[in-house]
Amino acid sequence: MQKKLKIASELKTKDPTKFNMVIGFDGFVDEIIHVVDKRQDPKHFSRVKTIKDFSDKIARASGLSSNIEFVPINTKIGGNGPIMCNALARHNPKITYIGTLGFPEIHNVFKPLEEKATIYTIEKHGNTEAVEFNDGKLILGKMNSLVNVDYDHLTKIISEEKLTSLIGDSDLFAMVNWSMLPYMTDIWGKIITNILPKLKIKKSKPLLFIDIADPEKRENEDIIEALDLLKKFKSYFKVALGLNKKEAYDVSIILGLFTKEVINNKSLEDVNRALYKYLEIDYVIVHPVECSSVMYKNQYFEENGPYIKNPKLTTGAGDNFNAGFILGLLLNLEPDEALLTGMSTSGYYVRNAKSPDYKELIQFIEDWNSNLI
């Protein structure tokens, strides 16, 4: 309890507006969808509540057929980068966002971002149908336009000189959604060879945040190649990799750290420590639904979260956690305290279907401490 009060008190003395952030390179228009279980009348229905219930519903149609009704709930900003950008922008730092937000003009759903950030749109946006359940979500992505985003395409829209200047001036450089951008590994490699040598090595290194997103559809060799590049950023950045539990356990198997037979018997700490040892970067963050953990300087930290049984919105919760965790690190909180700012940001988001501003974040932490949420 005292830790949350300490964090809330400390945050009141800090200024989140002073940071300079560069985030990229994806962008999706998300359509949030619920699945009908039973319809009572034209305006009312009961939802299919869990992914297992949905899978059972589909399985019953095997060899036959079935009519499944999807109900669109709303359309919103999508993609790991735009959602993270939107969450961080609530704290009014200086943000540059580079991504696939529509081309040559940005899609209307991203227009509010223009009021909060400097925007470079580099390609048409992807589209996502996010089918939400109480225990998770199914992300149905359409990403044809994202296959055009390679380093040459990127630097035609925003020059290498400008990109170097932006990265060099940043306190945070975030590159997210590796799995949906087929040329992201090449982009990382070109940044390492073309841009990093032009940067000044700062005494207080800026933060590089990486989120590979669910890599299940990518080849194992591609995943290993990408992750092995991360340590090459360490001369210029503190490097942080964020993973949800599924991603962390899948990647651990792909890297040969554990077998499929034994992974489910391993604790969150076992998996996080193994990834940290292999990757040789500064932070490895793993965030299941009910808690979160981080390895830093060979120390393991784990905190329980403010779990909610019936969230209003879950698509983007992980990106909000990442934004809150990043904010905590930038504000010089300890890693375990940054886990709590991360989970408070995502906790507020799933309850209110929006990201908290700075005062709302502090209030949420105080309410959590007082068992009011």
Topology (SSEs and partners):
Elements: H1 2-11, E1 20-24, E2 28-41, E3 44-47, H2 51-59, E4 70-78, H3 80-89, E5 94-99, H4 111-114, E6 118-121, E7 126-133, E8 136-142, H5 151-157, H6 160-168, E9 172-176, H7 184-195, E10 207-211, H8 220-229, E11 238-244, H9 245-254, H10 260-263, H11 268-279, E12 283-287, E13 291-296, E14 299-304, H12 317-330, H13 335-352, H14 358-369
Parallel strand pairs: 1-5, 1-9, 2-7, 5-6, 9-10, 10-11, 11-12
Antiparallel strand pairs: 2-3, 2-4, 7-8, 12-13, 13-14
Helix pairs in contact: 1-14, 3-12, 7-8, 9-11, 12-13, 13-14
Write structural notes for this entry.
- It is built from 14 helices and 14 strands.
- It is of the alpha/beta class and 373 residues long.
- A 9-stranded mixed β-sheet has the order 6-5-1-9-10-11-12-13-14, sandwiched between helices.
- The protein has a single domain, classed as UDP-N-acetylmuramoyl-L-alanine:D-glutamate ligase (3-Layer(aba) Sandwich), CATH 3.40.1190.
Strand portion? 15-25%
What is the N-to-C order of secondary-structure elements (H for helix, E for strand)? Answer: HEEEHEHEHEEEHHEHEHEHHHEEEHHH
In total, how many domains does the architecture comprise? 1
Label the structural class: alpha/beta
Biggest sheet features: 9 strands, mixed
Please describe the structure with a list of short key phrases separated by commas or semicolons:
373 residues, alpha/beta, UDP-N-acetylmuramoyl-L-alanine:D-glutamate ligase, 9-stranded mixed beta sheet, 5-stranded mixed beta sheet, 14 helices, 24% strand
Short description:
The protein has 373 residues and is α/β, with parallel strands linked by helices. The protein has helices spanning 2-11, 51-59, 80-89, 111-114, 151-157, 160-168, 184-195, 220-229, 245-254, 260-263, 268-279, 317-330, 335-352, 358-369; strands at residues 20-24, 28-41, 44-47, 70-78, 94-99, 118-121, 126-133, 136-142, 172-176, 207-211, 238-244, 283-287, 291-296, 299-304. The protein has a single domain (2-32, 77-369), classed as 3-Layer(aba) Sandwich (UDP-N-acetylmuramoyl-L-alanine:D-glutamate ligase), CATH 3.40.1190.20.
